[in-house]
Design a protein that fits this description.
The protein is 19% helix and 33% strand.
Length: 138
């Protein structure tokens, strides 16, 4: 589910991609164009190290930066112990790296372990972060 915005000219100039958590207002036409182009509400920009979500609110449309780049590469299940390991690809602030964590890391509370590896997100967005990572794990 990679939806890299670098190939999407309709929003390239709209987002000044800083490392801060921010919200960018967009028009309804831009919202429709983004959704029809990427076929998802999540924008992945590996080059600029961010994951964003495109949202339609009651009175507005927006793109909200929810976390630094991170995705689930694979779930690994040990058939003898039934333990689940999750392999993540993430930006640690310097480069793209991978890490394997236990299956609990995909829970709402387990996500906080990603912070120690350099993945950044606001705690207020933890539900959205969890939803995004759950989608990438399928």
């Amino acid at each position: 589910m990679q939806n890299n915005i670098n190939s999407n000219d309709c929003i390239k100039e709209k987002i000044s991609l800083s490392k801060k958590f921010q919200r960018i207002d967009i028009s309804e036409e831009e919202y429709q164009k983004i959704i029809s182009t990427i076929k998802s509400h999540y924008i992945v920009d590996k080059e600029n190290n961010f994951i964003g979500v495109v949202k339609k609110n009651k009175y507005s449309y927006e793109i909200r930066y929810i976390m630094t780049y991170c995705k689930v590469l694979r779930k690994i299940i040990d058939v003898t112990t039934k333990q689940i390991r999750i392999e993540y690809e993430y930006n640690n602030g310097i480069e793209i790296d991978t890490i394997q964590l236990d299956g609990e890391s995909l829970s709402k509370f387990g996500l906080k372990t990603l912070l120690s590896y350099g993945v950044r997100f606001n705690e207020t967005d933890i539900d959205e972060v969890n939803k995004y990572l759950m989608i990438t794990s399928y």
